[in-house]
Amino acid sequence: MPRDPNEPVRLTRIYTRGGDKGETSLGDGSRVSKLDPRVSALGDVDELNSLVGWAGGLDRIQNELFDLGADLSVPYEAGDDRLRITDDAIGRLEEEIDAANKALPELRSFVLPGGSERASRLFLARAVCRRAERAVLAVDDRSPQAAVYLNRLSDLLFVLARASERAPRTRR
Q1: Are 101 and 85 in contact (CB under 8 A)?
Q2: What is the pLDDT at residue 90?
Q3: What predicted TM-score, i.e. pTM, was given to this entire model?
Q4: Which residues of the chain have pLDDT under 70?
Q5: What is the pLDDT of residue 11?
Q6: Which long-range contacts (CB under 8 A, 24 or more apart) does 92-95 make?
């Protein structure tokens, strides 16, 4: 019996054995191969969320990444009310990019990823974010804002990584 969408998620048993034969359930209850592009995209977004958590201080973004995962877990249909990633979320990322970038010196060279521990974590999260964006683009029936959100998030992670360094390492 499907769960009422208004009921909170309850995990009474962690293993279900439902995926033992290489399939998993989507948010709408349908079953797909674990090799399905949608499942790959979900995995990349999950990995990204873990890395964003490791970088620390980005709780709202972690919650938005959960929403993005929820968007991806159900095939998108125009007009459905399940869409969670909105233009407002993308707009907030753009505002944060502009605010953080304003305090930084003009970028005159490519920046080498690395540096402080926080910068390194943010650069790693950015690389996985870009992979997640590519994986999302491989999903045909996806939320129209999913890849846009990840594109902006990769920019924010880059700017935050630069901001966490006093003297960014640049390519010569």
Answers
A1: no
A2: 97
A3: 0.88
A4: 1-3, 5, 83, 166-172
A5: 76
A6: 92/60, 93/149, 93/152, 93/153, 93/155, 93/156, 94/152
- What phi and psi values does residue 19 have, to the nearest 5 degrees? -105, 10
Helix (H, G, I), strand (E, B) or coil at 31: strand
From 52, 148, 134, select the one nearest 93 (Cα to Cα). Answer: 148
Retrieve residue 105's tokens: 């010196």
| Pairwise CA distance, residues 84 & 155, whole Å | 21
Q: Which residues contact 58 (CB under 8 A, 6 or more apart)?
A: 52
Give the pLDDT of residue 99. 96
- The letter for the amino acid at 51 is L
Alpha helix (H) ranges present in the chain? 37-55, 59-72, 87-102, 117-137, 146-163
Distance (Å, whole) CA 58 – CA 130 = 18
Distance CA 80, CA 89 (A): 18
Task: Tally Cβ neighbours within 10 Å of residue 107.
Answer: 13
